[in-house]
Amino acid sequence: MLTMYSTTWCGYCRRLKTQMDREGIEYSVVDIEQDTAAADFVMTVNGGNQTVPTLRFEDGTALTNPTIVQVKEKLAAQV
């Protein structure tokens, strides 16, 4: 399943969640302020920064602050 690494205050995260909900994309949300292992993962794929939203796909790859188009393209490529 797709995982979104997020924070409660992130406007970009809220926007992407709304767009993925509208598109019927299933995902789980992990708050990096509550989960240190998640924060560490986000930092490893973002040059040491805790940049959100960061999405982790089933194949282990990640996208940082993607558009909904990029998310849909990535998911389509994995099928």
UniProtKB/TrEMBL annotation:
Q: Where is the signal peptide?
A: none
Q: Which Gene3D superfamilies match?
A: Glutaredoxin
CDD domains reported for this sequence: NrdH
Give the Pfam families listed for this entry. Answer: Glutaredoxin
Provide the Glutaredoxin domain boundaries.
3-57
Q: Which PANTHER family match?
A: GLUTAREDOXIN, GLUTAREDOXIN-LIKE PROTEIN NRDH
Q: Which NCBIfam families does the entry link to?
A: GlrX_actino (TIGR02200)
- What is the protein name for this chain? Mycoredoxin
The lineage is: Bacteria, Bacillati, Actinomycetota, Actinomycetes, Micromonosporales
